Structure formats: C-alpha cells, structure tokens
Amino acid sequence: MAKNTSGMVDPAIFDYLQSKIDEDTEIRDQVKTILQDLEKHGRHSQASLAKAHSTQASQYGTIVEETEISIADQINVVERLAGTASRYPYYKYNSLWSRDIQNTMFHVLLCGWLGGSLGLGNGYQGRLLTLEEVGRVLKVPINLKDRDAFHLTIEEYLHALITLIDELSRLAINAVIQADFAISLQVSKFIKDIYAGFQILNLKNDSLRRRSDSIKYSVKKVEDIVYDLSLRNLIPKET
Amino acid sequence: MTSSPSKRIRTASPSRDAGTIPAQSKPKSSPMLSASSSPYMPMFSHFRSELDAHHDRRERVIKASRDITANSKKIIFTLQRAPSLGSALPNGITTEIGGKTTTIGTLLKSIYPSDLASINVWRYHWQLSPGIQELMEAAVFQHYLLTQELLNFADAQKLVGQLVGDELVGGGLLTEEDYLLGVFDSVGEMMRWSVSHLAVSRGRGEGDEALVKDLRTLRLALEMLKTHGAGCERDVEKKMEVMQSCVDKVENTAYGLVVRGSERPKEWIPEDKFPEMHD
After folding, report:
1. Which of A8, A9, A202 sits opposite B51 (nearest CB)?
2. Which of B152, B174, B196 is the last residue of a domain?
3. CA distance B173 to A155
4. What is the domain extent for residue B119?
5. How many domains does one find in chain B?
6. Nearest Cα to Cα of residue A86 among A140, A37, A45, A137
C-alpha cells in the first residue's frame, strides 16, 4: 500500500465522468433546439385552432385546412426529434419534450375533432382520434414496451385529452354566442363520455390525477350551458 | 352561506318567465350512468390495465430501493468500525457486510430484470436511484478503507452486475450520475472515519497524513467537474457544499492535532475520545 504518494484518485476516473457529463449536456442542448422549432409551429396550429371559437361549425373546414399545414410542419419536427431521441434511453430525456409533445398531440386531437382527416381518411366532426391514430398522424410509435425508442405514451395522450376537454368546454360557450346550439350539445355528450372513461382509471397522486380532477368542472360548465339552452327551448330537435 | 338560497331562487326564476318545464329537463345524469354507454370505455379499460401495471412496477422498485438504502446504511455503520486503512477488514466486519451485500443482491434481483427490462430501466430510474446511490456510497467507502483508492466506475459497474448475477448487462443499472453522487456522499463517511481515527491515533498513526491528503485530492477532483446544463447539475450543486464542509472538518481536526496534539505527553489520554464528533 506504499504506492499512495500520488493520492487516492486516478485522474482517468474524472476524465471519464467529465466526458459523460459533457455528452449529456450536448444531448440536452440538441433536444432543446429541436423543441424550439416544435413550439414555433405549435403556436401556428394554436392560432388556427383558436379561430374555431369565432367560426360557425359549418365553416370548420377552412380552419382544419389551415391547421393541417402547420401540423405538417410539427410532424416534420417530431420526426427529427424522434431521430435524435431514439439514439438515447427514452425515459432519460423524455421529460424534456413531454410537455411539447402533449401540446402537439392536443393540436392533432382538436383538429381531428373539428373534422380534420389528417391523412387518416374520412374525417368527421366530433371524432376522437385514438392514441394509435395520433401516432399514425405524427408518424411515431406508441406505448413502446419491448424496445427503447421514441414513442408517444398513454400518459401524454391522457394529458392531451384533458387539454382537449378544457378547450371544448370553452368552445361550447362560444358556439352558443354564435347561436350554434348543436355544438354545445355535442360537446356535452363528448365530454361526459370521456369523463366516464377517466373515472375507471386508478390515477396516482401525480400531475395527471390533479389535471383529471378538473374534468368534472368542465362537465358541469357544459351541463349548465345545456340546461340554460333547454330552459329556453333552444335545443335543436334531433333529426 | 346566507346568499346561497337567494341565488337558487334567482336561477330558478327565469324558468317561470320562459314558461318551460324546469328541473326534469336538466340533464343531470350521473357520469356513472353514462359510463356503460360511453363508446370510449374499451379504450379506457386498456389504459387502466396498462397504468395499473405501471404503478405496480413502480411501487415494487420504490420498495426495493428503500430496502437497498437501509442495507447499504448498515454496511456503512459496520465499516465505520474498521480499525485501519489499507488492510483487510477483521473477519467479524467482513461477515456482517457479506450478509447485507447478499440481501442487496436479492433485492435487486427481485426487480431486475423483470420490472427493469429494456426501456423500463430508465422509466423507473428515479425510483431506483436513491438505493443505488447509497449502495455506491457504501462500495466507495469500503473500497477506500481496503485499498486507499477511489473505486472507479467500471469496477463499480462490475460490482452491481455481480449483485444481480449478470455482469455483462446488469451493470447497466448503474449510471455515471448515480456513481458520482455516491462518491460525493462517501466523502461524509470518509470524514467520519478519519476524524475518529485521528482522534485515537492523535496524529501519530501511520498514514494519518495521507488521510487528509486523499480527501483534499478527491475534493479538488469533484470541484473541477463542470456540470452546467447537465442532468445532474442540481444534485451535484447540493452535494458539493456538504462535501466541502466534510473535508474542512478533517482538515480542522488535523490542524488541532498539529497545534495542540504536540503539546500533550504521549501518555495523555483524551477524556472525550472523539471531541470532533460533537460539533
């Protein structure tokens, strides 16, 4: 044990650690740069989709067309992100992009609900795109379990779904302003169906749980709208 | 509270004006009733089973991690009783540590590879991390007591691999970050051991000088790491201060021995064996 005149630390240990830390920093920077693009295109989609609040349901087609253009840009960025991210452990970095991916998924969901076909064929208004369909739109796998690569998770889909419900409960109000009463009824039914689904999930005390707690307020908000409409005989006869 | 009845009256009044049937037309169907008719139930039951399986795996990893931490702490306590540096540990200590190490291996095997297969190693990394870091703390401390050297990452990985009985792949359970954070924590144990060792030897023991030097070298190496923008940045920042104050304590102890220790006759026995421990 007499060798210890030069100290206990082999410098190679820390050279190696530093190189690994630098690698990690570099990967994070790469991902963040890509996410800036995703956010930029996402803002365009958001702006197009927001027009739904001031548009008659019969005119949703123009909004959808416009949104599909910026969603196409988002799809390209997601492809770049998937290419970069798939080179590293998925769950090591997924917190970096999870929020942005949730937003992107929400744009796809809302565009689909408004009637966008998004390359899936025969879109119709009021449609809920499944996780599989959102994956197909964004051209990435979903819920991967047996291999480590970029994908969309169930949790991300549920988060996007909660955002969709929030947005639709607002649309239910704005549709009334435009005397588009049928939309409010449709939203009410849709939100209640989704809410019923959320109720069978055993959510732990995480962000998904907290956000899903807010769905019941959306349900109530839209129920109140339907109540107000029914009081005044404003509910259109079912055909 | 007093305002609520009046509110109810107010919301009820337009119904009379409108002349429609009020209450019964209000769609207040309970969500549970609509559950059966919701077209999305198959999708949600699929999500439910996926999420349940996920939470179960997560729970198991958290529990194992907690038990690994407890056993690693026990190893560390035992190691604190090591009488000297750079030589084999007494049999009693080795046996005790061996038992705990076997337990840790069993705990790791209870979740690996089953719950931590493929993509899931990183999925539950944040749950496993505390246990692995504590294990590293023990391993680095033990290696130092035995060899007076810092355990390197490759050997640390091999050690974890051996514990799960899968040297080639099992080492993947240990990340560079967890190893590094374990090294940070081990400085605290080296400090504790050094301070009590110095108090007993009163600075006249063989290798007392090396102790201070070793910790100083390690401190400098840790301080020189650049972690800005890295995933471990915040953890390293937190541990840096603690590590520095630990090395300070050993330096202060050594200082005290040089200044005051030399004045004492060789036969003088301190009344309190470990004065620095009460700081």
Report:
1. A202
2. B174
3. 25
4. 56-174
5. 2
6. A140
For residue A195, the chain B residues in CB contact (below 8 A) are 31
Q: What is d(CA B117, CA B29) in angstroms, rounded to the nearest whole number?
A: 45
Check CB contact under 8 Å for A24 and B231.
yes
Please state, as a whole number, how many other Cβ atoms lie within 10 Å of the Cβ of residue B135.
28
Domain contains B155: yes
Residues linked to residue A152 through DSSP beta bridges, in sequence order? A142
CATH number at residue B267: 1.20.58
Identity of the amino acid at B124: Y
Assess whether B107 and B144 both reside in one domain: yes
Do B83 and B143 fall into the same domain? yes
Q: Do B90 and B167 belong to one domain?
A: yes
Note down pLDDT in tens along chain A; length 239 residues: 344 445 789 999 999 999 999 999 999 999 999 999 999 999 999 999 999 999 999 999 999 999 999 999 999 999 999 999 999 999 999 999 999 999 999 999 999 999 999 999 889 999 999 999 999 999 999 999 999 999 999 999 999 999 999 999 999 999 999 999 999 999 999 999 999 999 999 999 889 999 999 999 999 999 999 999 999 988 887 65
